[in-house]
Write a structure and sequence with these properties.
single chain; 361 residues; alpha+beta; Jelly Rolls; 17-stranded mixed beta sheet; three-stranded mixed beta sheet; 15% helix; disordered N terminus; disordered C terminus; binds 2-acetamido-2-deoxy-beta-D-glucopyranose; transmembrane
Length: 361
């Protein structure tokens, strides 16, 4: 009796393996969890995948919202204010980014002072289903510019980094001139690749640059958003920093690519909002403030520690997935054959000896 059941079980196992071959590789595929991903493939021109993935989602942090923190006063000229929400102390955030605070950059006029009070989680219910976003701001005081900067904890060597953001209009439906929004990689002034929104310029364009932009031939350009769209609308800005090439996208559309002055050294990934009174940014008027809203930051990257594991890698797609921020295992027919062979081996290796044991009984 036991023997017969065992035999039937074994036969049905074989049957399912065969039917898997016959039905191709759609619904019968074994699904690996995305948490098993060890290589991340991005859309576009990167021929090889990356080894690390981070998705910082600021869209549903309702339990971390705070009312808008007070503007930095003239007395608060050391930048030592605390973070505005326990979110910035949570490992979700802290393992990825540090918010700069207590730093004074005296070299500009006005000097820039970095304060963590310029980053906070705002309640902002939106038609797209999101409840919150990250707000980052800069404001001009009489004697200094209060600024904000987030820097990645890890050093990155090549990356595809994306940010979904918009510049917020003030109560007069305008944006004060003189601020720069930077989303960039930084090691030094000659190892840097930038996405920059300048609020004094056209609201329809942003600038992309491999530094230094002064070397010839330069790797820099202005990129336009889609017709009718401005950076006061939600948009996804992306730069792919690859070996020997940088490629910028706006809302998945290629904006500019270059092989000039591409950084070669491991760098930090940064987000900042600043103004130093120089000719590039311009000057903000005393009392003026510029804010941006960020829905998410997505980072796909390698570090200098990465080395091909040699073992079996689970390759995942970052783009064109069902849910943004949830990479999906790449399904190939090769994987199905392998799995089927693997289960046959399992069958002959384990179930068959088991049958003999049962028959002996
Ligand atoms: C907010 O909610 C998340 C889970 O949804 C939880 O992990 C976290 O501890 C909560 N934080 C606070 C401050 O309540
Ligand atoms: C964040 O952590 C710092 C240092 O541990 C602490 O002083 C501060 O109170 C914390 N802030 C919040 C909002 O949890
Ligand atoms: C809006 O415009 C009014 C009138 O010009 C001005 O007094 C006020 O400061 C402006 N508000 C902002 C936030 O710029
Ligand atoms: C975009 O900004 C420009 C100013 O740079 C303005 O003239 C135009 O009306 C704006 N367009 C939209 C769709 O808001
Ligand atoms: C981008 O446009 C600004 C004017 O809005 C111009 O000053 C700057 O030189 C342009 N940059 C590039 C790289 O063409
Ligand atoms: C910006 O303002 C400061 C003083 O507030 C002034 O010294 C500096 O020259 C201004 N910069 C520009 C580019 O106008
Ligand atoms: C990332 O690192 C892996 C392992 O060293 C390598 O095979 C791959 O080519 C790298 N990807 C990029 C885009 O540089």
């Amino acid at each position: 009796m036991t023997t017969v059941t065992g035999l039937l079980l074994a036969l049905s196992w074989t049957g399912s393996c065969v039917s898997q071959h016959q039905h191709g590789h759609s619904h019968l595929e074994p699904r690996a969890a995305a948490t098993d991903c060890s290589l991340y493939q991005v859309s576009g021109q990167s021929a090889t995948p990356f080894e690390n993935y981070r998705f910082l989602d600021f869209r549903s942090l309702s339990n971390y919202t705070a009312s808008e923190p007070a503007e930095i006063t003239t007395q608060q000229d050391s930048g030592e204010e605390a973070v505005t929400s326990p979110y910035f102390n949570s490992s979700t955030f802290e393992d990825v980014f540090q918010i700069l605070s207590g730093v004074r950059n005296p070299d500009s006029n006005p000097p820039m002072i970095y304060s963590a009070q310029n980053a906070y989680i705002s309640a902002a219910e939106s038609a797209d289903g999101s409840d919150t976003y990250l707000t980052v701001r800069t404001s001009r005081n009489k004697d200094f510019q209060s600024v904000a900067q987030m820097r990645s904890v890890e050093s990155v060597l090549h990356a595809s980094m994306r940010i979904c953001m918009k510049v917020l209009e003030d109560s007069n439906d305008t944006v004060a001139a003189g601020a720069v929004v930077g989303f960039f990689t930084y090691k030094s002034d000659t190892q840097e690749t930038d996405i920059e929104i300048l609020t004094k310029r056209s609201h329809h364009q942003f600038q992309v640059t491999n530094q230094p932009s002064t070397t010839e031939p330069a790797g820099t350009s202005n990129v336009s958003l889609a017709t009718g769209k401005n950076w006061t609308d939600w948009a996804e800005y992306r730069v792919d920093w690859l070996q020997g090439q940088t490629i910028w996208y706006i809302d998945d559309v290629l904006g500019y690519q270059t092989t000039n002055s591409v950084p070669t050294e491991a760098s930090a990934l940064m987000l900042n909002l600043w103004s130093n009174g120089g000719s590039f940014s311009g000057n903000m008027s005393v009392g003026a403030q510029v804010r941006i809203a960020v829905q998410y930051i997505e980072m796909v990257y390698n570090t200098t520690d990465d080395a091909t594991s040699g073992g079996t890698a689970t390759r995942c797609n970052v783009d064109g997935v069902e849910t943004k921020g949830e990479p999906q295992v790449v399904q190939t027919s090769a994987a199905v054959v392998t799995t089927c062979i693997a289960s046959s081996t399992f069958f002959f290796g384990l179930v068959v000896p088991l049958l003999y044991v049962l028959i002996d009984l």
